[in-house]
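User: Structure please.
Assistant: Input sequence and predicted structure:
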Amino acid sequence: MYVCGITPYDATHLGHAATYLTFDLVQRYLRASGRKVKFVENITDIDDPLFERASRDNQSWKELGNSQVALFTSDMTALRILPPESYVSVTEAMDSIIVAIEKLAATGYTYECAGNVYFRTKEFLPNLPIPEAEALKIFAERGGDPLTPGKENALDPILWVAEKAGEPSWDSKLGRGRPGWHVECSVIALENLVGADYLTQTNQSNYEIDLQGGGSDLIFPHHFMTGAIGKALTSVDFASSYVHAGMVGLDGEKMSKSKGNLVLVSNLLKSGFDPMVIRYALLDSHYSKDRMWSNELLSNAQIRVDNLRSALSRNEVAPIDQLLRKIVDALADDLNTPLALSLINEWVDGNESGKSGGSIGELSRFLDSTLGLAL
């Protein structure tokens, strides 16, 4: 599985946390089911927002990126989000990305325009996940340049950005520059999950990787373009499954840096909130649904976690066998965490009747391994 990681120019907010919690649950479920999971996540340490903030703050882009990666991994650890097998940064993968772009150029998938190198999307556009008019609007909002004169198609994304003053650049057959956003993920996923020789392998499958994941804001253009570039490189569909986490909002609006309405995980932790309460609050909505964050949600989660901890501190608790089976069934049904939590709450309430026969240790270990609730 490959999950799109952060662009490290600002702190982790609850939208990030909800996304990475989703794929933490996927990884936990697959491992608990006996599967071997190879999981890679990228770090986009070469991107316009990173350079812009570093310039604004008169700071090295490398220093800024390193500091935000450290904060991100600290937040994820606090929330008990299992790390991937590998975090791979764009700068680490640069040589491989350049080789891939040069192959795309050699096979006719690129052209030059306004000094940059673009990817030809023409053959992939029949598979657009949304109407073209909507795609053009979203493309412009999410880093694309549909209005650049001379492009073959308004939706063609930049593969190679020509060298700019004050920004890092690398040598390639296409001139000095740096890669565009989408190709980075295609290459990092293929090289680290399929193998370093993915460009020359003969794949007998219908797809290269099992799962591509991220927030629902990546459905288009990022995951569409990543898949198109991946297929252009290998002639095989990029991923069997695409899984997307819903957005987290605040006060009726999507939570985003541009709106300035972020709730930062690090700020909640500094304010004394138990990371397990934050995690519980995020689990209380289905991963695929957009949801609103509120103080009430956090307060309710605190009450539920306190009640569960109290139940787990008893000498005798109600039987757990049926509870464990039902939670597994809930998670097997598209990670239905709201149902899983409601089952736990029913069990907690049932303890008030003085039932006994359950194993506290077994339940505690189960909740940790499946839901990441270390209580």
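The domain at 272-371 is CATH 1.20.120.640 (Four Helix Bundle (Hemerythrin (Met), subunit A)).
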